[in-house]
Structures are given as structure tokens and as C-alpha cells.
Amino acid sequence: MSLVPVIDLAAGQKGAVAAAVAEACARVGFLVVTGHGVPAAVIDRGWDAARAFFDLPEAAKRTVLMPRPGYPYGYSPVAGESLAQSLGDRRPPDLKESFSIGPADLTPPPDSADAIAFAWAANLWPTEPPGFRDAILHYYQALSDLAGRLMRLFALGLDLKETFFDSRIDRAISALRLLNYPDQPVPPQPGQLRAGAHTDYGSLTILLPQDAPGGLEVQGFDGAWHTVPAVPGGFVINLGDLMARWTNDRWRSTLHRVVNPPPDAAGSTRRQSIAFFHQPNWDAEIACLPTCLGAGETPKYPPVLSGPHLASKFRSTVTLPAT
Fold first, then answer.
1. Which residue in 109, 202, 225, 259 has its CB near the most CB atoms, within 10 A?
2. Model pTM?
3. Domain around 283
4. Residue 116 placed within a domain
5. What is the dihedral of CA 284, 199, 44, 1, to 10 degrees?
6. What is the Cα–Cα distance from 109 to 280, expressed in whole angstroms?
7. At 19, which CATH number?
8. What is the C-alpha separation between 216 and 231, in angstroms, rounded?
9. Does residue 322 lie in a domain region?
10. pLDDT tens string 130-175
11. pLDDT tens digits, one per residue of 65-100
């Protein structure tokens, strides 16, 4: 039996679904959801657009290269970041390439230069492949809608009013990241992975994975690594650090990684995924929820603001050029 449960969001009463989601969030911090309502056509278009982008020559992809270390959007080449560094683990850079976008239709806070420089930095769009921008924006919006519905289930699962999080995510600064893990004709360096062990930074992540060699693993209570199932038509959901802070660690932001394919794997070991990182409003205060503090307990974490926390964590992962 997999450590990560599969939950049909369309099955049963909302309260029962919320209870099942809450149990998964408390036990492992990961779940796979089906019955999510995201149209297959939107998923397929987004997936195909991502594949076509990564199939472009390197020079074409570099036309939308992140213009400086720490810039959040655009193309990041293979070995452009090390996610393990977000936890202070100085491993070699990750064996992946990515393309990221952020919110395109929000007005930034008027008094925050950091917000404008980071979350509201300009998205960088390639001129090819054809239809890329439209497909990716439709995917972003569909996943943003799903994230909002999941946050309402989270509220119910935490014994809060269903709309509790609405005002904290109505200007969400979420990011969408297309990921490509190329074949590995040259053996990795010692300790080098497709994505080093890390936790995510925001409220939740919605991942569309590919069932291919060298996939996603989550660390269980026993310290062992467990494969996360790639369910056809399903999304992998995991909690981020802000949700753990909100819940005083009653819900888990769990360590996970993407491993290398077996050295003896036959054929191509290329792998693709698309990750939607849902992030509350830039100025949303993340403080212990009233339903997550028992008698005599104190909050484990001081309050933080969503945006500055995200910017700090993101910049810690960047692979700076050699000097």
C-alpha cells in the first residue's frame, strides 16, 4: 500500500472529502487527487506545450533566460539551481531545466519595492513554439481555480469557516513551473539528484508528474523514501512550509526529492512534470490558526509574511556564477 493516499474529490459529501484530505495532510502531507474538474484538454495542451518548449534548441530557450540570479521567471538551464540548498544542504546543482511564470493580472502592493521586484517581475515569453503562451496561461488559471477549491477543503478539514482562507489568497502570487529532467548520458556527481531533497515554500503544490524512471519520492516517518504514485488523470498535492506554520505543524510540509533513473534503465529516461506552487497574497500574515493551538500550547513559529518568506527561500536555491 502506498504511503500517499488517492482521494476522489468528486466522491461523497464535501465534509467527508475534507476529512479524508485532512487525515492525509496530518499523516504525510501528500495526497493524489482525482475528480478534480480540470479539463483534460487544458492539461493536454499545457503538457504538449511544455514538451515542445524543452525540445527547442538550447539557444532558443535561452532567449527567455532568467536575466539575473534570483529572478523568479523565465528559463533556468540544467544545473541552474540546487533545491537542497534551501535547507542548507550544499549539494551539487539539480539535473533539471525549467521555465517559470507568475501572476500576470494582479496589481502589486503600492508600498513594496520587494514585491514589485520579485512576485511582480515580468514574465518572459518565448516566440516559439506556436500557441505556447495561451496554453500555459490557461493551465495556470485552471490550477489556480483548483488551488482555491483545495484551500476551502483545507479550511473545513481544520474546523474553520469554509471561506476562511479566501481573503488571504484572493491576490495569490502563485508560480507555475514547467520541468524537464533530461537523459543522463554522463553519470551524476556524488550526491547529485534530479531535484535535491527539499520542502516547498508556500501553502500547497499541485504537480502533474510523468510515470517514468527517476521519479518523485517522499520521506516517511521511518526516514525511508517512498515512491509517490503517478495516477493517470490525477494530480499530486503536497503541503508547503506556510501551511505547516499555519497549522503549528499539525499538518506536514514533507521532505521530498526527485531521484535519478537507474543506471541500467533501458531506452530514454527523460522525465517531465508541471508544478503549480500556490502562494498566499504577498502581504498575508501566516500565524498559528486558532483551531491548531490546544490548551497550554504556544505557537512554534513567529508570524511571517507570505511574500518575503517566499523570496528568501527561492533566492537561497540559486546557483550563482563562479567568480
1. 202
2. 0.93
3. 6-315
4. yes
5. -120
6. 14
7. 2.60.120.330
8. 13
9. no
10. 999 999 999 999 999 999 999 999 999 999 999 999 999 999 999 9
11. 999 988 999 999 987 776 667 666 667 888 999 999
